[in-house]
Amino acid sequence: MAHPNVFTAKHRQLVRCTVNVASRYVSTGHPLVVSSSAGNTEELPSFSSDLLAELHAFERWPLYTVHEKAARNLERGYAARKYTSYIIIAQVCRLGVSALLKRISTQVQFLQEIEAGNPKGVFLVILLNDGRVDKELLREVLASLWQWKILDVIVMIAVKRQSFVTDNDTQVNLFSWFPFQSPNRCTQVTDVVLMDQCNYGAFLKNADLFPKKITRNLNRCPLTASTISWGDLVIVSTETSSDGAETKVTYKDGLEVTLYNTIAETFNMTAAFIVPIPSYGNIWGDYFPVNNTYTGVIGDAKFGRSNVSFCGLPKNFFFELHIDSTHSYVESGFNWYVQCARPRPRWQVFVRTFTFSVWAVLILAFFAFAIMMWFLAKFPDERQEDAKYRSFFGTFEALFAVFLNVGVSRMPLTLSVRTFFCLWVWSCFALTIVFETYFTSLLVDPGLEKQVSDVEELLASDLVLTFDNGYVPLFEDMEERETLIMSRWVSCAGFEACSRRTATIGDAATVLDFQTFDYYKHKFVDNNGESLLCRLPGKISGYFITMFMQKGNPLFQPVNDVILHMMEAGLVDFWWSVIVERLKLRRYQESEEAPITYFVFSMSHLYVAFTFLALGYGLSVSIFILELLSRVARVPK
Fold first, then answer.
1. Which helix (H) or strand (E) holds 226?
2. Is the peptide bond before 211 cis (omega within 30 degrees of 0)?
3. Could you write out the DSSP letters of every residue in 327-341?
4. Higher pLDDT, 37 or 578
5. % helix, strand, coil for the chain, step of 5
6. Is the model's pLDDT at 293 over the cut of 70?
7. What's the CA dihedral at 15, 17, 22, 23 to 10 degrees?
8. Which of 87, 99, 97 minimizes the C-alpha distance to 39?
9. What does the pLDDT look like over 491-512, one tens digit per residue?
10. What domains can you pick out in the chain, each with its CATH number?
11. Which residues contact residue 53 at a Cβ distance below 8 angstroms, ignoring those fewer than 6 apart?
């Protein structure tokens, strides 16, 4: 065991330097947590006691002490406050490097449970030693801390210095490291940097111990992203190797991809995509609390497999229990979508040319005219009129022929009958013009059938309610409407399958967010290029789209600042408008010919007219054959 006065000299140096570091870098009023590991000598508790006494004397920070056995109690009783800073005290033991790293990792794990991912907090690691600390050990310690994404860290050790006064004179060295120094060693701790030296609380170089380590030039290091195809936000593309043997899935278009590429260019980083671990319940990732595993893009961000995760991810409380969200850049929400109103069948055109009441009036007027002309032909002297008009059926036949714009076989003879006959001809002429005008316009545009217009009509209809499993939490409230929806819910295999059934078959309604709808409304269109999907009024739930990153990731704040600047500059809205317009142009290629200023009738418009014409000819031929048969039957044998 070392002599007590040696401990006192070391302690005095380390305590003074520690207090000086805390005074410079821990804001007044912000919590300061002191964590010490279990030691096998009396040096560790002695130093911890001296340090706490000195820190208390300053009365600048709320102090909390954490021991391995008491950490769980602190977690339950301590209300986490942001910007907490930490002092970790560990002793270089005789058991070796692995034992030291394990103890430090255990301490950090307990601290992370108090406040996971605290990028604004600073870490000061004090290694108590007997001169057995070298740069390789420091590298191992810093690498162990980097596994928790701890970057603003100083490792402090007391070493002997050359002095002619006393052999026990010591100085304190402060070490750290810098990531992203070259493409070959981006996040590998390879070099340990001596930041400053401290003698009795005074720094030799007075250097900044916690400089800005994330700059705008990160030397082409990869900015790893985890994503999946997501409408106009993330558009998937494929790349084939030069020999054609391998096809690689990548992402080069979409609003979030454009935003991500801009962030990578801002920091001089290389875009790199990974394939998320497959998820089966929630499309963004499945969480299993029993073994603390998370799949999908959320799991990639939580466990640091990716630097950023994005694919229309909503900012919500549950996700932020596990990961940190950046500034939101797109507003979105969930709505019900149904098949748009379909054009009415053109065979209904004839019936719909006039309303039912107009048709009824026309029929009554027809019979009234026929009775009136027959009455005038019969009275006062029926012998003056042609025999055709003295018969009711003959009068009916003549009026019907005029109505169909067909000539009659015999004209009326008397003035009164001729006057009524002329009035009927003029009326039919005007009626024919009106009828043909409406008939032609309805052949061009037959109108639309009735469409479900709101959620109340949707629930009263017999449409199937189908949507992705990930949207089930939207209807978990035990209200009457939500219960009815879930009782009629039918699962479907992804957003495209749900949208395809709704748009093309029309027997279902589905739930989509705004951006997914913007994509599918251009994918499912009719012959005129109009969308087959229509949004019902009344938002189910609104949310903001964001990117997610691992808690404590040192890239978080710089990335967040870049997103905010792009939002303030209006770039996100501009990119979105460009993407939507480009997708429209891809689906509807503009013609180089002069615009058509007239309407062209095609068989799709005229088949109804030709159908009625064929029916008329068929009826005429049938009547003609019946007349021939009737005449043959009346000929005497």
1. strand 222-226
2. no
3. ---EEEEEEEEEEPP
4. 578
5. 45, 20, 35
6. yes
7. 110
8. 99
9. 888 788 899 999 988 889 999 8
10. 4-203 (3.40.50.2300), 215-329+546-590 (3.40.190.10)
11. none
